[in-house]
Amino acid sequence: MTTSLQAALSQELKHELKTTRRLLERIPTEQFGWQPHPKSMRLGTLASHIANLVGYLEMSLQGPATDVLMAPAPASPTTIDEVLQRFDVNGENIHKALEQVDDATFHDSWSMQRGEQVLVTMPRTAVARIMVLNHMIHHRGQLSVYLRLLDIPVPAIYGGSADEAPQQ
Question: How far apart are CA 95 and CA 41, in angstroms?
């Protein structure tokens, strides 16, 4: 039996979104302004960025190009509840969007533009892997370090952590 690209991606997203949400849930709103270094993102900015990342895949499935000037960024959340709500809505939306496409859609190219300037063009498979999954996992790694530095227990991710046994 062959699994469709869309089904495999949906399954992987479910796993990664669940793991990412477990980290986001631990962020205290009162620490949103904290940053480990002046060159680092503030905790609240990092959390908001993670919550918005999944939206890039949904955006890419809506047409051959997206002009970021026509799709303004949403306001930054000010509480962890707002971050989690955005993360959950974006996760639900991408799963609904994935149900509506076939594998051929992922081989088509998509471009992100700023007006006439093309910022990036890539196949939607690369959008899914690079702009969404790998990008989210990268920032999730940063977030786990932020939590450790704030002495907030780090959940198990791909195995146990110093604070939690592996998930079954």
Answer: 29
Residue 78's pLDDT is: 95
| 57 vs 5: CA distance, rounded Å | 14
The arithmetic mean of pLDDT across residues 18-41, rounded, is 97
Distance CA(2)–CA(70), nearest Å, equals: 38
Architecture of domain 5-149: Up-down Bundle (1.20)
SS3 102: coil
Question: For residue 87, which of 30, 36, 19 has the smallest C-alpha distance?
Answer: 19
Rounded to two decimals, the pTM is 0.92
**Each residue's pLDDT tens digit, 116-138:** 999 999 999 999 999 999 999 99
pLDDT-wise least confident of 5-9, 42-46, 127-131: 5-9
Q: Rounded distance, CA 27 to CA 32, Å?
A: 8
Euclidean distance between CA atoms 85 and 9, whole angstroms: 22
**Token representation of residue 123:** 């196949």
Are the C-beta atoms of residues 47 and 33 closer than 8 Å to each other? no
Could you tell me the residue ranges of all domains in the chain?
Answer: 5-149
